[in-house]
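Submission checklist for the structure archive. All mandatory fields must be present; incomplete records are returned to the submitter.

[x] Identifier: Multidrug ABC transporter ATP-binding protein
[x] Organism: Roseivivax isoporae LMG 25204
[x] Residue count: 313
[x] Sequence attached
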Amino acid sequence: MQAMVEIADARKTYAGGFEALKGVSLDIRKGEILALLGPNGAGKTTLISCICGLAVPTGGAIRVGGHDVVDEYRRARNLIGLVPQEVNLEPFERVWNTVRFTRGLFGRPRDDARLEDILRRLSLWDKRDAKINELSGGMKRRVLIAKALSHDPEVLFLDEPTAGVDVELRRDMWEIVAGLKAQGTTIILTTHYIEEAEAIADRIGVIARGELLLVEETAALMARMGRKELRIELSSRLDAVPAALSGFDLALEEDGWTLVYAYDRSAERTGIARLMSAMGDAGIVLRDLRTHQSSLEEIFVDLVHGERSEGAA
């Protein structure tokens, strides 16, 4: 199956010489949700801008639905819906006209029933006759989403769609995203709410300093890089890890009351049973046991920190 979005060695260098993108290559499959993570200034928004035609790449090639975003701009852009970070709406226009006008810009025939469905799903139907400047910040964000969906795009870009919005909108947003995915829409999102990416994305991409560090299935990434820990609370305080336990990957927390054992949960043998036996032989009595699985946020921080360390070397 041909990728819905094809990015081959995409580069973007600005007039001052700053390289915002340094040869990004990525294929995004039809109907998948890809979460693009990266610190501020990593190149996320620049990449989205190049795909959506808001910026022109200075190297490489980008195709959407088989159409080159430079040579076949109109055909490519017609397939894309974009929810930008910035709220930029005509303040004195009414919600209904704003959304209907956007559908018309893309050459779609009038379909009031379709627009009503979108506004209802975004809890905007009761606000359809309100002027934009009468809406709260969260409601304005909903209008941006409605505009992006108005022409039934095959690819939807969400650039920090839930930043600074209420919990209700975040819930509504992800319900809509799930519905669009079920219909075959390809969705690319950037977010600072990493737990959302972990919960909803099929794949995770990590970008830093204009380079794509990795792209991997979310579950596989968690299994490969997610560190599992067994936290052992002790009945008696220790000053150091006993020599009898030196063969295990153990760390003693500063307070001396907790041993932390790191292990690979996918391994055939975790070593936990052997550790418990060795602790018994050493006369160490435990009070409680807890396990902890690394979150995507911890993995993301480790990846970006490692990239920065290598870059500084």
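[x] Structure attached
Curator remark: Residues 232 and 289 are 5 Å apart (CA to CA). The chain has a mean pLDDT of 86.
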